[in-house]
Amino acid sequence: MDKKHIDFFTKLLGAENACFDDAHKIAYCYDATKKRFLPDGVLFPRDEKDVSDILRYCNEHKIVIVPRGAGSGFTGGSLAASGGIVLSLEKHMNKILEIDMDNMVAVVQPGVINMDLQKEAEKRGLFYPPDPASENYSTLGGNVAENSGGMRAAKYGITKSYVMALRAVLPNGDIIRAGKRTIKDVAGFNVAGILIASEGALAVITEITLKLITKPKYKKTAMGVFDDINSAMNAVFRTMADGVTPVAMEFLDNLSIKAVESKYHKGLPTDAGAILISDVDGSNLSVVEEELKALEEHFKANGAREFRVAKDDTEAADIWFARRNCSQAITCYGSLKLNEDITVPRSKLPSLLAKIAEISAKFDVTTPCFGHTGDGNVHTNVMVDKDDPAAVERGHKAIEEIFKAAVELEGTLSGEHGIGVSKAPFMRLAFSQEEMNLFRAIKRAFDPNNILNPNKMGL
Fold first, then answer.
1. Distances (CA, A) of 333 to 35, 256, 367, 383
2. Which 8-state DSSP code applies to residue 128?
3. pLDDT of residue 334
4. Number of helices (H), then strands (E), in the chain
């Protein structure tokens, strides 16, 4: 980084917020992918004006800027893969600005932690449903940039369902507002919709207006035990197609069940082919009980050998602990996890899981699967020995075939993790050349000098 640029940023932000030392560069060189790209510096803007001043200067001098929340992403979206400066929004721009009880709206800065908003909303009897697995540390700005989902998506939808409006800074420093604080708004193009899931490649989000809903009073947790995964996958789409809509419909396959039980000893049935974990909720207890009964009937009609209802919050927490800690437990199968989050229509889940088993056998890899089957989102985890180059190569080949299978089943490369750098090489499997050209044209319209998070998503 040229000294004149360092001097400009230091004068603008103060030395404590303009960091070009090795310690900061190392601290901000990685995310959950464990890939490492050393940035040229790290900036901590204090407010929207700082963001605007930084981007205007960087645009003028063709300096790459990479927006970053908590760095919890799985695809490298917040990594300085092309060099440049990391723009970290977690230090200062992390305030809940308003919770409007009358209109059930929250206004937040991008560095607010997801769970912090959930807790503040719940104190007022309100509810912010999107609950990514990283909810205790991921930021809402990052959630919007990746359009994060979570376990409650089966009933309540994902981040985009709650974004009403955004404030953002364009690469040239201009400040825009996208969307309105209204339930309906069809005036002009849906710019907020374009910025959601754009992975920080079009603009830097500086303020988010989010819809809140009334918090349900009652919730019950249940688990269905199936002898084989095909029966479990059939139970998912048939149950929901018949009008039963649980809050969550999560699954663990046999490999995941065994891993969790071996590590945590939660009393899971290790001989089961799969388990489905569900929550039902509502403002009326009798309605919740009726939905729970309907869930049991549908599970058993589709082959469940057992249906357990949690007796209390402790037992419910134990059931959910198994699901939430799958990712850590399955490391028993290999030192390198090739973790993907493919998504297909729910009715294609049985075919998808069968295809994953076939591909795993073909390449001699172990692939435990779990995830959000209520919205067709399967976390496939190809596990290999990182010190065995042949195994790693087989693992990557298996991943490519799994992506192809998902696309052939009318699915997508990613349900919630995004594309970033990890999945960029596979965009050609899901999009035509014409579609990729359109994406690139949108990128140029926002960022003609290509300074903002370049070379992500295959752009």
1. 21, 10, 9, 6
2. -
3. 97
4. 16, 18
Strand partners, 88: 68
What type of residue is 411? G
| Rounded-to-integer distance, Cα 368 and Cα 362, Å | 15
Report d(CA 394, CA 388) in Å as an integer.
10
Question: In the predicted model, is pLDDT for residue 158 greater than 90?
Answer: yes
pLDDT digits 0-9 by tens, 93-120: 999 999 999 999 999 999 999 999 999 9
Q: What local confidence, expressed as pLDDT, does residue 429 receive?
A: 96
Q: Judge whether 117 and 140 are in contact, CB under 8 Å.
A: yes
Give per-residue pLDDT as tens, 124-148. Answer: 999 999 999 999 999 999 999 999 9
User: Under a CB-based contact definition with an 8 Å cutoff, are residues 93 and 206 in contact?
Assistant: yes
How deeply is 172 buried, as exposed, middle or buried, from its count of CB atoms within 10 A (0-12, 13-18, 19+)? middle
Rounded to an integer, what distance in angstroms lies between the CA atom of residue 278 and that of residue 304?
A: 14
The pair of three-digit structure tokens given for residue 259, joined into one six-digit string: 């891993």
Q: Distance between CA atoms of 204 and 452, rounded to whole angstroms?
A: 9
**Helix pair angle (285-301, 229-241), 10° resolution:** 130
Q: Can you read off the two tokens belonging to residue 32?
A: 């959950």
DSSP E strand boundaries for 146-217: 163-169, 175-179, 204-211, 213-214
CB count, 10 Å around CB of 13? 19
Six-digit token pair at 308?
């357990």
Closest CA to 420 of 141, 201, 139: 201
Rounded to the nearest integer, the mean pLDDT of the chain is 97
What 3-state DSSP class applies to 380? strand
3-state secondary structure 317-333: HHHHHHHHCHHHHHHHH
H or E stretch covering 107: strand 105-108
Closest CA to 310 of 295, 322, 320: 320
Q: Summarize pLDDT for 29-75 with one digit per residue, the tens.
A: 999 988 999 999 999 999 999 999 999 999 999 999 999 999 999 99
* Spatial distance between the Cα atoms of 133 and 114, rounded to a whole number of angstroms: 10
Tokens of 377: 């989102």
